[in-house]
Amino acid sequence: MSACVLSGGTCQDSVCRNLSNDPLNCGACGRACATGQVCTTGTCQAMTTLEFMPFAPCNLVTDYVDSGTVNFGGALGAMYSPRCIRVRVGTRVTFSGAFGSHPLRPSTRGTSGNPISATSTGDSTGVIFGSAGFFPFYCQFHGDDGGSGMAGVVYVMP
Ligand SMILES: [Cu+2]
């Protein structure tokens, strides 16, 4: 029997297993996810978090840009750029701009467990998105919780 080390795990068979995303060996050899679940960073998660859901102002999957940075304010004015971003689970997203002029707020809409913290000072913050889903945000001064005005969404893929 050969063992293969991938993503910090070993399985005692002849096939390499990536324990971080193998639904039959999720986080440990032989630990299978239930039907309808996916394996994300070694944890079984509900498949429903993968399905696209529209949240204003990002209503189309084509609205999203693969980016780990959201800029705002300054020459951009009262807007986020890009305002609809798509990342993988575990990505650290940087919000860059003057929070004093554009206080960042997590929206109550979207997937539960939004990791974005209300931020009103400084000019850069990093947010690690540890689970899949849709996490809207907005500017307290120029947007609202419903996604109007200065608002955006982080789409986190497993
Ligand atoms: Cu603003």
User: What is the terminal-to-terminal distance?
Assistant: 31 Å
How many helical stretches? 0
Radius of gyration: 18 Å
List of distinct ligands in this structure: copper (II) ion
CATH topology of the largest domain: Immunoglobulin-like
Structural class: mainly beta
Q: Biggest sheet, in brief?
A: 5 strands, mixed
**What's the CATH architecture name of the largest domain?**
Sandwich
Walkthrough of the structure:
- With 158 residues, this protein is mainly β.
- It has strands spanning 37-40, 43-46, 65-66, 69-72, 80-81, 84-88, 92-96, 104-106, 124-128, 133-143, 149-157.
- 32% of the residues are buried.
- The protein has 2 domains: 1-48, no CATH class; 52-157, Immunoglobulin-like, CATH 2.60.40.420.
- Strands 3-6-11-10-8 form a 5-stranded mixed sheet, with no helix packed on it. It has a 4-stranded mixed sheet with strand order 5-4-7-9, with no helix packed on it.
- It is elongated and about 55 Å long.
- The structure holds copper (II) ion (CU).
- Copper (II) ion binds next to strand 10.
Task: Write a compact overview of the structure shown.
With 158 residues, this protein is mainly β. The protein is built from no helices and eleven strands.
For the structure shown, list the relevant keywords.
Immunoglobulin-like, single chain, 158 residues, four-stranded mixed sheet, mainly beta, 0% helix, binds copper (II) ion, five-stranded mixed sheet, disordered N terminus
